[in-house]
Amino acid sequence: MIGGRLSLCDEVLTPDSSRFWPADEWKPGSTPPSFDKQPVRDHLETLDWDKTPPAPPLPAEVIAASRERYVTAYERITGLRFGDWPGVSVGA
User: Fold this and answer.
1) In sequence order, what are the residues at sequence separation of 6 or more whose Cβ sits closer than 8 angstroms to the Cβ of residue 3?
2) What number of helices (H) and strands (E) belong to the chain?
3) Which pLDDT score, from 0 to 100, does residue 36 have?
4) Structural domain boundaries of the chain?
5) Whole-prediction pTM value?
6) CA-CA distance, 43 to 53, in Å (whole number)?
7) Integer CA distances (angstroms), 33 to 24, 30, 37, 40, 76, in order
């Protein structure tokens, strides 16, 4: 509460905070594909890093895998092509 009003002070409904999964690929007892930053988490767990800043650089393949998940989430949720969004540069 801020000044007696309910306030939202964090992210909501992002692939990381909400763990979106494709409903058509979910089966009881399985771990369905997700749209979050799990490739980053998985990579960082393989390193001898004490989790204090600065974070180590990420390999291009980890960045690409994470980007693909976020683009897929955007396209599935909005029904729009990410490449058509005005903020996307050519070749991104």
Assistant:
1) none
2) 3, 0
3) 87
4) 15-24+32-81
5) 0.71
6) 16
7) 11, 10, 12, 15, 13
